[in-house]
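Let us practice reading a record.
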Amino acid sequence: MSGHTLKLGRPDAAAVIDERYAQEPDGWRKRRLLAVKLAAKGEYTSAEVAELCGVARTYLFEWLSIVRKRGLEALLERGKPGPKEGAVRGVEPRVIEALRQKLTEHSFASAEAARRWLKKEHGIERPYKTVWDWLKKANGVLGVPRPSHSKQKPEAAEAFKNELAAKLDALEIKAGRRVKVWFMDEARFGLHTELRRVWTLRGLRPIVPRQLRYEWDCLYGALSAICGQRTSPTCQA
């Protein structure tokens, strides 16, 4: 065997290393314990231990130094805490918050669009893969949007719900009289334009406006708000 074999020089650590290694689940701690375990055997060179553990020799020497000076427990401590959940190291929280806000607005059809926005608005230029990771850390997900017509008026829909009770009272229907409340709607059928996925926050269903231009037919129907009875559909070209 070429080269000098490693010597741990800590018999107290060598005595418990096998038990700790067997109990530890897979992860960075177990990799460190494996490196120290092989060094404790005194049968391998630093190059061989580094190759078996899949790490650079500089990391190996650093780990052995920690064990020799401070003991085995110090080796299993995380030296530098990672960023908080949803945070990105080296990026101001306001930027990530702005990115999350853009996700709630369904502004990005692709990670490339988010990458261009970061560069233009915040002067941050990162590779595509990095921006993708940031979107995921911001709890983003690619979702299929539900279309809404470009001329839809959300304020009119909200006003209808708020004014419905007053309109029913204005009919002055006698108490005890049986009435039915029907809701009518129409649907148009034709060739639709394709909708691509857009970035949004996990748990939100994105709604995006689109302009529909096609040959179409209308389907009309009505539904009773009380019993669920429905009318027969009628078509009109």
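A brief commentary: The chain has a mean pLDDT of 80.
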